[in-house]
Write a structure and sequence with these properties.
The chain has 30 helices and 19 strands. The chain has about 725 residues and is α/β, with parallel strands linked by helices. The strands form 4 sheets. It has an 8-stranded mixed sheet with strand order 12-11-10-13-14-15-16-17, sandwiched between helices. Strands 1-2-3-4-6-9 form a 6-stranded mixed sheet, sandwiched between helices. It has a 3-stranded mixed sheet with strand order 5-7-8. Strand 1 and strand 2 form a beta hairpin.
Length: about 725
């Protein structure tokens, strides 16, 4: 787990090297090794200084949270944190200068190792990230981060790092004071660390010196006494009290920074232990760390299929989605053929990459050489024959069966027999689209989310005839472009679009039922959704909702008489307010001003004199999504609770503090969830009626994650 050397000058090098993983994380074995080498180095009289670095590409990506969540009792969690504090304090007070030689990305517990060093030198590479992102998993830095970082750079400067989980590039980290020095090459890193030990060799941390004062002022200074209440108010405004971690971090800072470090670390341990035991933290860790780690490794990839050697990707349609896919693929070393009906249209799609790279160049996030290299990977064309030689083709044309069938046939005419064809449809069933294919075994769905370069999820959809080879190729591609795959079965709207639409529709049901539009929007945000349902409907396009519904009615032969559909029809057919793109929807979009709810809404949908309370609206908006997710599980559209949870958070921003749509139900408890659904069904209609299987599970005292574990054990 650790490579240890000592040179002739008495400088020890402790290099992290987790043999069982491609990255370094603090786990039981690494911690034991690290503790031993720190103790040995400190007690060895011949050691004049210690360098801590990594033998892997990245320095360290934090702690293995399985080590933490696997110890459910407060005593065990406290013991882990105290053990970390003990070894870090040994580094700080052992009488030997310790330098962190940061060769790659260092996050969370990894950066807390660096904070416990007396000096920090980083490689100046714009791909490196430095930060403490624990808050994004419902936690706080439990290795002294809440205490050392404010003491190092000041309270005001540390707040965004701790409360928002900001990650900095090396140049930004140097400017902030999070690192002390940069070097331009890996070859310079260890020599620079040795030089500091020989020439400076400071053996004491600033906070252990007599008369230490926190940079920028302590807790009781007038400036900080103004900053902290403002920060607390901003937290509540942004989180609506759904996330306990930011408040715990604020408390750690306020209480701990009025104490000596050793006592302050005990404050941090207390808050850390309490946070780990909260349902929010447990759910976020399970979904956003454990489940996502498995998904990112390609856990759903069929066994026995050799790795795909993907080199050249065809993209049909250079609109926003196609352009975004082209950029993401080229960024990760793939050659792209970007095709549209004209060369000019394809070039316009390539301009999307030009714009992103121009912004990166302005911010010094990429070199001109790297930007040119990326752009040279994107070849634009109008000729279908240029798709020849592509290993994978992704169509991202308009949601038209006829158009998709045309481009499928055009492409297959020039593709090799083992090339895979993927549709980036968001709603049209893959099995139906595959009918246009001469080789449906190699036909699959790849549903990206907009904007592609920022959205992490890709929903892989299987048609009835999709082969394991096509699934493996799709997963390999998603991994190659560093996104998170979930694999789902075919059905209208698949998983993400189907469940996400219920949020929009329930917002419109509330509107039609006389709930104040402002209450609807605020309830959505207070429930933990990114924006309110009416605002999101405008963003997505009310007209798109209209077209999808009309297609569904045509395919099923049944008219949808839901109140929400009547609202959509009125806005598109009568009012001609299709959404944000037309600057007319549920909101008005004044030129140069902030959007506001359309003033005529109250006339169209008179507001009830007695409004429901906000908790009931929040419940309606979240429960309807969770119920639809349950139906998707029961219909085998999505096959695992983990995929449903990942898809809901990454796909459309379902309240992250819940851990996702299924964890949300488990946290409430199935018995309580079913009872509350029955109450909602009586008040608002049968769409809230729980399924028979859900009722049976509730009666038996089961949960979805327990049920899944039992199924896996049965198979084993």
């Amino acid at each position: 787990m650790i490579q240890y050397t000592k040179d002739n000058d008495g400088i020890a090098i402790i290099s992290f090297d987790n043999k069982n993983s491609s990255v370094n994380v603090i786990n039981e074995d690494l911690l034991a090794d690290f503790e031993m080498h720190i103790n040995d180095s400190v007690s060895d009289q011949s050691v004049k200084g210690i360098i801590i670095t990594s033998s892997k590409k990245d320095f360290m990506l934090g702690a293995d949270l399985k080590m933490i969540v696997g110890n459910n009792g407060p005593e065990q969690i406290t013991a882990i944190a105290m053990r970390l504090h003990k070894v870090f304090r040994k580094m700080e007070t052992g009488g030997k200068p310790v330098v962190a030689a940061i060769n790659g990305t260092v996050l969370g517990g990894g950066y807390e190792v660096c904070l416990a060093c007396h000096y920090r030198i980083a490689l100046n590479d714009s791909r490196i990230q430095i930060g403490l992102p624990e808050v994004l998993l419902g936690l706080l830095p439990g290795g002294g981060g809440t205490q050392r970082l404010p003491r190092l750079i000041g309270i005001q400067e540390a707040l965004p790092m701790l409360l928002e989980g900001k990650k900095l590039r090396p140049e930004q980290a140097l400017k902030s004071g999070m690192v002390n020095q940069l070097v331009d090459s890996l070859e310079q890193l260890i020599p620079a660390a040795k030089q500091w030990i020989v020439n400076v060799g400071k053996k004491i941390q600033p906070w252990d010196e007599d008369g230490f004062k926190i940079p920028g002022g302590g807790i009781q200074s007038p400036k900080i006494l103004m900053v902290l209440p403002a920060a607390a108010g901003l937290i509540l405004k942004k989180t609506y009290g759904n996330y306990p971690a930011p408040i715990a971090i604020m408390n750690c800072i306020y209480e701990g920074l009025q104490l000596p470090l050793d006592r302050a670390l005990m404050v941090e341990v207390r808050y850390f232990t309490n946070l780990v035991l909260t349902p929010e933290s447990k759910n976020m860790i399970r979904t956003l760390f454990i489940n996502m780690t498995e998904a990112n490794k390609g856990e759903a990839r069929p066994a026995g299929i050799p790795p795909s050697n993907l080199k050249k990707i065809g993209i049909l349609g250079a609109g926003m989605m196609g352009a975004g896919i082209a950029y993401s693929a080229a960024l990760n070393g793939l050659d792209i053929v970007l095709k549209d009906v004209t060369k000019a249209a394809a070039e316009k799609g390539k301009d999307y990459s030009v714009k992103i790279l121009s912004e990166k160049l302005t911010k010094n996030q990429i070199s001109q050489e790297k930007a040119d290299e990326l752009l040279n990977r994107i070849y634009t064309t109008e000729n279908p024959a240029d798709i020849a030689g592509c290993d994978l083709v992704i169509e991202a044309v308009f949601e038209s069966r006829e158009l998709k069938a045309t481009v499928t046939k055009e492409s297959e005419a020039v593709l090799s027999a083992d090339a895979v064809f993927a549709s980036n449809t968001s709603t049209l069933p893959i099995t139906g689209l595959a009918k246009a294919s001469a080789r449906p075994k190699n036909f699959i769905g790849l549903h990206f989310f907009s904007p592609v370069d920022k959205m992490q999820l890709v929903e892989i959809i299987l048609g009835e005839k999709t082969s394991d080879y096509a699934i493996a190729t799709a997963i390999d591609f998603v991994k190659k472009i560093k996104k998170t795959p979930i694999v789902v079965n075919d059905g209208r709207g698949f998983f993400t679009s189907r469940v996400f639409s219920t949020y929009l529709f329930e917002g419109m049901e509330c509107l039609a039922g006389g709930v104040s539009p402002a209450l609807i929007e605020n309830a959505g945000k207070m429930a933990g959704m990114p924006v309110g349902p009416l605002s999101l409907a405008d963003e997505v396009s009310i007209e798109l909702c209209y077209k999808i519904n009309k297609q569904a009615e045509a395919d099923s032969g049944k008219k949808n008489d839901a109140a929400a559909v009547a609202v959509i029809n009125k806005f598109v057919e009568e009012l001609q307010r299709p959404g944000k793109k037309a600057k007319k929807g549920f909101y008005e979009y004044p030129e140069g001003g902030k959007k506001v709810l359309w003033t005529e809404l109250a006339k169209l949908y008179p507001v009830l004199s007695q409004q429901p309370n906000v908790e009931e609206i929040k419940k309606r908006l979240l429960y309807i999504q969770a119920l639809e997710a349950v139906k998707c599980l029961e219909e085998n559209i999505v096959t695992k609770p983990a995929d449903a949870d990942i898809g809901s958070i990454l796909g459309w921003g379902f309240a992250p503090y819940t851990g996702g749509v299924i964890s949300f139900i488990d946290s409430i408890g199935l018995k309580k969830f079913v009872a509350e659904c029955n109450i909602l069904a009586k008040k608002y209609g049968k769409r809230f009626k729980p399924t028979n299987k859900l009722k049976a599970m509730a009666a038996e005292g089961k949960s979805f994650y327990q049920e899944r574990t039992a199924e896996v054990m049965e198979v084993m």
